[in-house]
Design a protein that fits this description.
four-stranded antiparallel β-sheet; elongated; six-stranded antiparallel β-sheet; 2 domains; Rieske Iron-sulfur Protein; mainly beta
């Protein structure tokens, strides 16, 4: 008959201790990569000058508002949208106001006019049909794109919407230095 109270052997204990110690050590060396609870640091955010975009109360549900942010044209084309659904990275009373780059991550096609309010997605891209879910940090829903749509980091200062950074790399730029 099996013993329901298993006492680990010395070998099992040392193995488990080694794994735990390695995880903790790597978590300190590479924050945000090993331990998922690293919410204090915004890993992967490129910070730019703070730019005022508009007012939360002036937004119309499902109508994108175009603005420029994060660098030189044409790489700075972005849009702000009130999705009507709680969205990843959203601000406002309902956490449904988000902003993204207008450039498809697959081949850089402009996504202006491709917002679908019924599903809170942008796309399909006119070039290769990539569609992005704006309620889930711009992740790819379908198509050839493999990277999420770069999301603009927003802050609410009272009723004012302010852009402070971008998560992700804009198509056509090899690194953040080129965005400036």
């Amino acid at each position: 008959m099996n013993n329901p109270y298993h006492c680990p052997t010395r070998r099992e204990f040392l193995k488990a201790s080694g794994v735990a110690l390695t995880t903790i050590t790597l978590g300190g060396l590479f924050p945000g990569r090993v331990l998922a609870a690293d919410t204090e640091k915004r890993v992967g955010v490129r910070f730019f000058d703070t730019v005022e975009i508009g007012s939360i109360q002036d937004l119309v549900l499902g109508e994108p508002l175009s603005f420029s942010y994060g660098g030189k044209a044409p790489f700075n084309s972005c849009f702000l949208i009130k999705t009507g659904r709680r969205s990843g990275g959203g601000i406002g009373p309902d956490q449904d106001v988000v902003a993204f780059s207008n450039l498809c991550t697959h081949m850089g096609m402009n996504l202006t006019g491709q917002y679908n309010a019924d599903h809170a997605v942008v796309g399909p891209c006119p070039m290769h049909l990539t569609t992005f879910d704006l309620t889930r940090h711009g992740m790819v829903v379908s198509g050839h794109g493999t990277e999420s749509l770069p999301q603009v980091v927003l802050e609410a200062q009272g009723d004012l919407i302010v852009a402070t950074g971008i998560i992700g790399l804009i198509h056509g730029l090899s690194d953040a230095k080129e965005m400036i």
